[in-house]
Specification:
single chain; alpha+beta; five-stranded mixed sheet; 3 helices; 28% strand; elongated
Length: 99
């Protein structure tokens, strides 16, 4: 016999603040609905679900993904630098300089 509710959470790490909001949602709820129900969008107005990617436990998913009991929905901030370029820049900066 199943339950009518799932226990999930919604996580976001902003520049100055973070949140991990536990939620009880009805079976059949999708990622977008859980985010909207969590109150995270009101607390972090910089989140734009048309831009920010989302995932479940580090795996990127679409907003219409159905949730399962225990899922942690994560809202990701947009990258401000290309990771490959950032690694190259750090490697150049760490290289010893010879006169």
């Amino acid at each position: 016999m199943g339950t009518d509710y799932l226990h999930v959470s919604v996580a976001y790490v902003g520049e100055d603040d973070q949140i991990l909001r536990p939620l009880d949602v009805r079976v059949g709820v999708r990622v977008r609905e859980a985010i909207e129900q969590s109150g995270v969008l009101a607390r972090f107005p910089e989140i734009d679900l048309a831009i920010n990617k989302v995932g479940i436990f580090g795996r990127q998913v679409k907003l219409d993904q159905l949730l399962e009991d225990g899922d942690r929905v994560e809202i990701y901030r947009p990258l401000i630098a290309d990771p490959k370029e950032a690694r190259k820049r750090r490697a150049r900066e760490d290289r010893p300089r010879h006169p």
